[in-house]
Amino acid sequence: MKAIIMAGGQGSRLRPLTCKRPKPLVPVANRPVMEYCIDLLRDLDIKNIGVTLQYLPGMIEEYFGDGSDFGVNLNYFIEDKPLGTAGSVKNAGSFLDETFIVVSGDALTDFDLRPAIRWHKEHGALATLVLTTVDNPLEYGVVITNQDKSIRSFLEKPSWGEVFSDQVNTGIYILEPEVLDLVPEGEQFDFSKELFPRLLEDRKPLYGVTVSGYWCDIGNLTQYRQAQEDILSGKVKVKIHGENNNGIIMGEGVEVDPTAQIKGPALLGDFCRIGPRAVVGPYSILGPFTRVEEGASIKRSITWDNVSVGAESSLRGAVVCSRSSLKKRVQAFEGAVIGDGSQIDAKAEIRSDVKIWPEKCLGQDTVVAESVIWGRGTVRPLFVGSQSPGYIDGDLTPTQVTRLGSAFGATLKPGDMVGISTFPGGVGEILHKAIAVGLIAAGIRVAYLGELLTPVHRFAVRSLELAGGCHIKQDPVNPKKVWLHFVNDQGRDLTPGAVRKIENLYWREDGRQIRELYPSINFGALTDAYRDWLLSTLTNDALQKWKLKVALGGQGNVSNLIGQVLQQAGVDVIRLDFDPEKNWSSIKKDLTFFATEIKRYDADLGVAVDLNAEDLILFTRDGNRLTTGQQAALLARVYLELNNKANNLVAPVMASRAIDIVVNRMGKEVKRVKNHPGIYQEAMDNKQLFLQSDSIAALLQILQWLATQEKHLNQVLPELPNIYTATRVVCCPWEAKGRVMRTLINEESSQQIELLDGVQVANDKGWTLVLPDGETPNYHIYSEAFSEEIAEELASFYEERLKQLVNGEKV
């Protein structure tokens, strides 16, 4: 015998599972459902199999090939247009020269079909339908048979008043080739609606044989989940890949932390990794290479391949498709489906029966109560300022980075040279190479700058006269987060217009076709050149004479470089390196020990710097930490005193008002601009940019200024404005941000507010800035006043008001 597997259906009722793949390739217990059909036929010793295809045929051909890997011989027959069930088999007529069996490529069964085949042959049937009994036949085609198994009548999806039998058509047929003579060529024609009723009308030998066993049509998402539970519970006898140990089936290379809990029945695909204290509950199926992070909980849920479930996330009766990434504390409830390649940011909630179509992004703290089908979802922007963030265990793949490189390159001229640098480690090297591929493909000459700090990258782009640069850096707070920092030919952040060009090209996937590829070049010793350049900016030998003693806190490369620069400038450096395992947020929250050590070593001042040399914290010799406002005011004073010709100082809107007080005392003005780094850096002259964007340069200039003044930092501190700052963060869904901002503006007096960037409200007590976050669904509140109590009072007032506005409450 031969066989036909009908594998052309779109599986529209299974969407979004079938948006990116044909229904026969949807995984059931980590195997495409069509594999079970092949197993069934091979066990019947039927090895010559035709496969009818219509929707995404290439994917099925690519997966199964000629069938030799599965012990059969496959022949494919592709429909140019939908031909119906009988029409699709007619399309394979040249292959069918003997009795053949037709099965559906998207049904799961363990029927023993031998009795039906034997009955067909013994009774000279033209067509034999394989039937089964079901409890609820309303969704199926009911078949009524006589005592001799000949078919009496058909009822398609009857009402309860028409249910005269519980026997239903399974879509499995045993047929003779001549039956296809009744099927018109190239036209849509159906077995159950047209061919079989005609055979019945013509009194042809048409039989229905009821067989026992398991059968599931997998026509909808409920049946899809149920079929997998039935496999795990042993209701259906099919082959599952993996080793069964008391109901827990594990594939090859599975890693389970000793503190994790796995409760059977459950299936863990090849190379799954289950983290500490994670829980995988009964009736859960994890696809190959699924990662379940610390404290995550999965119950009665299904993940496909290469899924990441973030720490403390919770899946309850959900399906997560291939390559999807769920960040920390994500929740997905019963019936929820997350399509292929989706990214769900931290603390997002997907409620029951919500469907997320493929390639969607849900922002942090987003609550989704309705399906997300069109657009990119409630997505965070691709860029935050001039930087593109991503997670190395989630959305930041080498493919995405290559696309970004290609988009950036397409905004430049062919043959331009762009510098790329990265952070130490394997991940940095992979992403470094990925962005190089994109740039080269866009006709850009790549300059490999090596492993650098951010200020050194800016210096390299500027001094080598490159067309731009991209520095790949690790987030100082979250080691799994990476930033791609793009700069222009001056080493400055890109303007919003330049960023939009990259975003548009990225989302349109509108790369540039280049016929000529340019050779790349490697540059070395850039850190040494940067160090020498920094030292050349010193205008006198005050540091050599005064012999300041500085306590330096940092990690790794940044400590090494700053230590070298300061020592060569004549500073006595005391290295107090921070724990390399701690992130910058933890370090900043607990600097008490560092402050104590400053006093113990009798240092003149202390300085703490993050791993990218972008964040600087100053301490007096007494261990007192300068506030953000005091540090900004000090830097403004240093800049203006070192640059007498400067008439004003540029500051972003969110910078402390302490700057205004210091600058006004000196008879100068502050020019406020938007908070986008590309905007305020473009507005600054080179000397201010030098101090604003380079923490190492800023530190060196502050030390030289102190040495020239022959003052210690604690002596200068009383001369700086004592302004107190209070901050708050309020969660706000992306879609509500505009409404909240509009309502807040309407509530405030026009004389008190400024709308340059965010909402700034000034009054007699102090001032407050309410600023939407560009990366997360949050608002930031910054309040300043001359007393700590009033600053906290202002921040608390606007925090409460924003929460009311988010919830739709009126004044």
Which helices and strands appear, and what pairs or packs with what?
Elements (H helix, E strand, L loop, with lengths): L1 E5 L20 E2 L2 E2 H11 L4 E6 L3 H8 L8 E6 L5 H7 L9 E5 L3 E2 L4 H9 L4 E7 L7 E5 L5 E6 L10 E9 L15 H11 L4 E5 L4 E2 L4 H13 L9 E3 L2 E3 L4 E2 L4 E2 L3 E3 L4 E2 L4 E2 L3 E3 L4 E2 L4 E3 L2 E2 L4 E2 L4 E3 L2 E2 L4 E2 L4 E2 L4 E2 L4 E2 L4 E2 L4 E2 L4 E2 L4 E2 L18 E5 L6 H13 L6 E6 L3 H16 L3 E7 L2 H10 L4 E7 L6 E7 L8 H13 L12 E2 L3 H11 L5 H5 L2 E5 L3 H12 L3 E4 L8 H6 L2 H9 L4 E5 L6 E5 L7 H15 L5 E5 L5 H8 L3 E5 L3 H7 L2 H7 L2 H15 L3 H4 L7 E8 L5 H11 L5 E2 L4 E4 L3 E7 L5 E8 L2 H19 L5
Parallel strand pairs: 1-4, 1-6, 4-5, 8-12, 15-18, 16-19, 17-20, 18-21, 19-22, 20-23, 21-24, 22-25, 23-26, 24-27, 25-28, 26-29, 27-30, 28-31, 29-32, 30-33, 31-34, 32-35, 37-38, 37-39, 38-41, 42-43, 42-44, 46-47
Antiparallel strand pairs: 2-3, 6-11, 7-13, 8-11, 9-10, 14-15, 36-40, 39-40, 44-45, 48-52, 49-50, 50-51, 51-52
What report would you give on this structure?
The protein is of the alpha/beta class and 811 residues long. The protein contains 23 helices and 52 strands. The strands form eleven sheets. Strands 14-15-18-21-24-27-30-33 form an eight-stranded mixed sheet, with helices on one face. Strands 5-4-1-6-11-8-12 form a seven-stranded mixed sheet. Strands 16-19-22-25-28-31-34 form a seven-stranded parallel sheet, with no helix packed on it. Strand 37, helix 8 and strand 38 form a beta-alpha-beta unit. Helix 7 packs parallel to helix 8 and helix 16 runs parallel beside helix 17. The termini are far apart.
